[in-house]
Amino acid sequence: MRVKIRNNAFIINNEPVFLYGAEFHYFRCPKSEWSDRLDKIKNAGCNLVSTYIPWLWHEIKEGKFDFYGKTREERDLDGFLNLVKDKGLYCIVRPGPYIMAETKNAGIPEWLLSEYPEIIAKDRDNKEHPAKVITYQHPIFLEKVKKWYQSVNDVISKYQIDMDGPIIMYQLCNEIGMFHWVTNTSDYSEHMQNKFADYLLKKYGSVYKFNYNNITELIKDFVNGKLKNDDAIKLHYEWGRFWREYIKEYVSILRDYAIKSGIKVPFIINIHGFKNLSLSSRGMDYPIGLSQLYKIAEIDDVVLAGDFYPGHVSYDSYHDLVLSCALTDAISQSEQPIFSAEFQSGRLSDRPRISPNDVDLATRTCIANGMNAINFYMFVSGENYDDIGLFGRRHDWQASVDFKGNLRPHYFKIQHIGKMIKLFEKQLLNAQKEINTYIAFYPDYYMTEVYDEQTKGILSKIADERDAFFYNGIGRLLTAANISFDAYDIMKEAVIPVDKVPSLWIFSTKWMDEEIQKKLLQYVKDGGIMILYPTVPEFNLQGEECRILADALGIKEFYIKKGWEQVDVLNIDSVFVNQRMVINECIGEPVIWAMENGKKEYSGFIKDYGLGKVLMLGIGMEHDYSYKLDVIRAIADKVGIKPVVWLEDENLSATIRKNGENSFIFINNYDEIDRKTTIKYNNNFLFDGRELVISKRSGVMLTIGCSLVDDINIVYSTMEIYDIVKNKNYLALFTKLSTGDTGEVVFKSLKWEPMRDEKNDVIIISKGMYKVKITGILGQEATILFKMSNSEGKINEN
Fold first, then answer.
1. Closest CA to 755 of 777, 734, 730
2. Domains of the chain
């Protein structure tokens, strides 16, 4: 296989490649204009084009396929893939069976639904599913999918990279489980009921655990929402775990069909979950998609890729992208890069309007947080031919290239970042995000894609608390405080490795399974530092008493106060919180307390346990006030967690990716005003202590210790370097004044000498070391010219 996944990068023909892609739907663009659009994609700095291949477009009638443009030239899939090959672009194909993409029936042919209605999923009342989604493993559906794959893969297989073609990956289906989540309606068809019964009997041998004697009665009452006692929540989690296995099995079947019809490249599964909220979007529900597709990560050569649609990117919401990157990485296979197969470069409708800065900031944020592959969606506008569009003829999507081929402003933002990626591709791919700590991801807390009246109470409490205290609380506060983190999946391994995860922030509700509680306790015994918030669990997820952590820590009695509460945290007084524990006996060093009737009520403590420490952070707080950044820093400092980067202006975000001497520092300003700052890294000023200006709603990627061509090494640069041109005697370095009206680059080179001109001042620091200072206007592009030195280390004064 010529495409491999190794060291958090895609390796193509034995070379690591940063995939920088563009979604372009050939079936929505006149064939005569395909070449123009592909040229524009390539000129934007992209090395990849991605496209859906709609089943309903190519198999208009059952058994009647057109992949060569006989019925309409825009159906010439073969011609399109050949053109992509000629343009020298990589390609990702996405042939469904589901594609969504605002096509009717989500890309499923109308003849399939009308002639075989029995394949449509059923709700609890045995009526058609409100989204008319198909039962994924219905035998008739799989039979038709198999024939579709065999036919379309006759074309696709010829253009794989192993055949010197452009195709490097193949997506299986699309956003699996999304329709069930957004409609709060699972599939309760007879097929699914039988599968679930088999699952329960295989797992338990009988159904006595659920207070039933007969599996048929149990399944019937489950579907009808009439379970007895506490069985409703027990069956909810069994149903969710069953669905994870069912989806994994479905993907394995599709993968098998694809392989047997000639596909040799890796496969992609994309993950849904960003949700529109009025004129904004949020990623708080994105982990629901991660939970639904959780088991797919166990399948060989299948890559998990996120759909990132943050809407307007602001100071108040950028942490959604940071958390989504971290959580995706946590459940993925260890070698896989963080990848977004659908990365917002437009929106389905014209509101909210996406600005160039939204695209720029989202891209920079995700690359800063370790993303090594991006596919911009949509990159090219189009039209729906032959009435295939769900919302009519137009499919504009605020794309970078409109349907007439004109370039929109955000095209140039993408182009600029693409140039930097191309220049520093190898160094950037090898550079890992520097982190201070880990946050825990517990996928079962996101098993809330569907609920009923019997389970709504518990599941709503879990959802409300995780959104407030994990996503918009500790996760948000750590991000905004520049305490850099990765996420760790606490369900993945039997033992949490302390050497890899020295400290771990654990979000807990009153419910947590026994296995997880035991694992966390062992982690601390082994030497880990655990920050547990906002409470300690008392029950397992099935509602049965389970106080493993509480008993081990010596928390005998406590209760929760909710509402308008104030506490003191270490030396910070009057901290507003939404809830707090009241622990009858503080069994460690107090860190959080409140005064009630002249008496201290303790809500948090720190204590040694085994070889490690536990900080019981018994408060639920969100980032609603700026002073809470001081609170989170004080808590982190108490257990020895300190930010990698210090910023004079704490309203800015800074992240470092580093590999040996090669470092990239990303500084983003999400506010509507320009900001100035100096920066420290490991207590040392960067850029010789120079003050940097970061323009409003923009970001910079600055290089430290990066090698370029020949022997040119960048000691540091306060300007973005985005291109280099070299011939035998001269070299030109293209830069942008990104941090002020002046910028400077310090180089080391014994071979190349920077040249002075009216804007560039060259200072010789020492033998083979130069500082180039450039004067201009913030945002202006500038060129540094070099010529060969007369001899090694000697300056050509002429």
1. 730
2. 3-109+134-177+265-430 (3.20.20.80), 437-638 (3.40.50.880), 645-788 (2.102.20.10)
